[in-house]
Structure formats: structure tokens, C-alpha cells
Amino acid sequence: MSPTLTDLPERSRVLLTPPTSADAERKPLTKKEIAADHPTWCPGCGDFSVLALYFKLIEKRKLWHEKITTIAGIGCSSRFPYFVQSHGVHFIHGRSLPFASGVSLSRPDLHVFVFGGDGDIFSIGGNHFTHTARKNVRMSCVVMDNWVYGLTKKQTSPTSPLGFKSKTDGWGALDRPINPLKQALAAGATFVARTTHTNPNHVLQMMETAMDHDGFSFIECLSECVEFFPGAFDTANPRKGGEFNLVPKDHDVADEVAAYDLAGASFPGYFGVFYQVQRPTKNALEAQVIADARQKLGGLKDWQILQQTFDRMK
Ligand SMILES: Cc1ncc(C[n+]2csc(CCOP(=O)(O)OP(=O)(O)O)c2C)c(N)n1
Ligand code: SF4
Ligand SMILES: [Mg+2]
Q1: Are 16 and 62 in contact (CB under 8 A)?
Q2: Domain residue spans in the chain?
Q3: Nearest atom (ligand 1) to Cα of 223
Q4: Cα 84 to ligand 1 centre (Å)
Q5: 21-311 maps to which CATH number?
């Protein structure tokens, strides 16, 4: 069930409420209006369903183009912003999170979604993931995990299972894969969840919950690469004889150690919210520093402060 206005954190209420009475006559977007280019993914790629559910989220939450920002790095999954008719950036490989941090810190009125691949976020972007999570910058980061580098045609990724034969490990992957959930918990993410592209209702539910979280929210979404790792997630798909097990009802989402234990379950593991706590965001802390500094400077305008700084440097 979607939350009511009064259940939501103040920030989400800002997103939901039409800003002025003049906007009240503005109709929510239709799927046709949200969709941009036709996706260039291979037929059957799991990324299609993640995109369709993002459209649903925008529709359901009545967000207008300018209220949502879609940012990505490089990879098949990272082509995401091209397909969404909103503000968005297809940025440098692995560098989506620092770019998204800048947007989030400077524009508190919109929600920033980052979409990326297992390579983009955990390999080249691994350091940025750690620091964005620990700083608790307000945004939602969805990793479309296909256990392979798709765009560059089948290299081993940080989540490829041991023994996976790829162009970089013809003999089978030798290196222990990382566990995205444990990685996020250890880095200090305040919201950690897992879902799979084969369960659309669950993907939508996780994206909505992540969006309402006031802080850095991370979702690992299994998304099959039908071209270079077909069948990777069959054992997590009941339609293919696998199992889809929700996080147990008695799991305490504020218990970091319990979340870590749950994240260690062998594949297909669990799906749902593993961890969620409230900690001051970088956005709130930085806004306070700015407000304090402004007060100390006796209400000078920003340009006057800048002018003083340049004068001092002379
Ligand atoms: C700096 C830099 N290094 C390497 C590349 C080549 N490259 C592009 S995408 C990619 C990996 C993509 O894998 P992943 O993030 O898992 O996305 P997927 O295609 O699987 O969705 C690599 C290595 C690049 N574009 N830029
Ligand atoms: S190569 Fe794989 S990840 Fe890329 S579009 Fe095709 S199926 Fe999807
Ligand atoms: Mg990948």
C-alpha cells in the first residue's frame, strides 16, 4: 500500500504536493510522456523491466519531469537516462555517484535516482560508492546486477560467481565475488534492499520505499543479461523452478548485524529491506554549516561574501 501524504517524510511531501495553486491544474504525466527514446537493450534483457517500473513509480507518485533526476555512469544499465524524459545525465564510467551528490546537495527539491551496473558501481566506481554511502547523501542508487560486464561483451565483474568463464577469465573466475549488500552495510548506507527484475511488484515497492528514505538508499536489483549470462538468476525465479524468499517478517531492519547475517545467505538468498536507519544526511549537515556561516557574516548576500573573499586574495 502506498503511504499517505502525512505518513511521508517532509521531503517526499514536497515532491508530492503541487507547488502552487497554478500547478494544481497540471495533470500527472502519462507513461507516454515519461518515455523518451526506445531502449536499445537486447530483447529479453532484465533492464527493460527496471525501466518500466521506474516509469510506474513516476506515474504513481505523480512526479513531473523536472522533479526527478536520473543519473548513470557507463554500461548497458547506465543507458537508462536516455530512455527517461526527465533531467538526466549519462556520465563517466564509475563516476555517477559524485555527480549525483552535487545535484542532490544543491537541489533539495528533487529526488535523485542513480542507475548503474555491477561493474560501474562496484569496480571502477567502488570508491565513490563507499564515500557516498558513508556521507549519507540523499539519493537512491539502484544497481542492476547481472554478474557480468554486458556493454563490453562479457568480462568478469566484481559480482561474477567463482568459475564464471568470460573473456577476461577464460579458465573461469578465480576471484571471490563481492556481496553488494554487505558492501553497502559496511560502507554505512542507511537503507539497503534487494529485489529482482522478475518480480515487478516487488521492484516497484523497493523503489518507492527507497525514494521515501531520507538518506542514501541502495537497492541491488538482479537484472539478467540474456546475451552474456543467460539463466544466471533462474534459481531466484519461481517461474523457472527457483525460490523467491522475502526477508523474514521478524527481521529487525535497524539491526545491522542481523542484516549482515541475512545478506550472507547463499543464493538466491532473501529479497526486501535488509536495513533502514535514520542518520543525519550530508544534505542536512551541510545546509546547517551554510546557515551558520551566513548568520555569522551578518546576513551578507552570497555575492558579497564572494566579493570579500576575492578582495582578501588580492
Ligand atoms: C574509464 C572507462 N573504463 C572502461 C570503460 C569500458 N567500459 C564501459 S562499460 C564497462 C562495464 C560495464 O559493466 P556494468 O557496469 O556491469 O554494466 P552492464 O553493461 O553489465 O549493465 C566498461 C569496462 C569505459 N567506458 N570507461
Ligand atoms: S548485453 Fe546483456 S545487459 Fe546489455 S542489453 Fe544485452 S542483455 Fe542487456
Ligand atoms: Mg553488469
Answers
A1: yes
A2: 21-311
A3: 21
A4: 20
A5: 3.40.50.970
